[in-house]
Amino acid sequence: KDSYAKYPEVEKARGSTKASYTMSYFTITFLVCNFPTFANNVCYTLATAVYHYPGPIYRHSFMFFYSWIISEIFCTVLNAALNPLLYYYRMREMRQWVRG
Please, are residues 94 and 87 in contact by the beta-carbon 8 Å criterion? Predict the structure, then answer.
């Protein structure tokens, strides 16, 4: 690392690469946590438009009662809970602030 100290453009490129990885982690976490909500909304739209609600998709009691709770509440809260952990993992300043 010290061998590149006289080349500031290398340090700048290293910082932008780290920022790209950090944004990728946040984006992947967002997509994974919100995919169940998207899938549930697609299933609901199909059940409403093609079949008469509840249709075959929501006829099962689990899908009828718990699919909205899991997809809309649990997955959203999971995403909100994972964000500070990602900040802690990716940002040195955050780790130093938490450790005191």
Answer: yes
Chain centroid offset of residue 45 CA: 23
pLDDT tens across the length of the chain (100 residues): 555 556 666 666 666 788 888 899 999 999 999 999 998 888 888 888 887 777 777 787 787 788 888 888 899 999 999 999 998 988 888 888 888 8
Q: Concatenated DSSP letters for 23-42?
A: HHHHHHHHHHHHHHHHHHHH
Cα 80–chain centre separation: 8
Q: Identify residue 34 by its one-letter amino acid code.
A: N
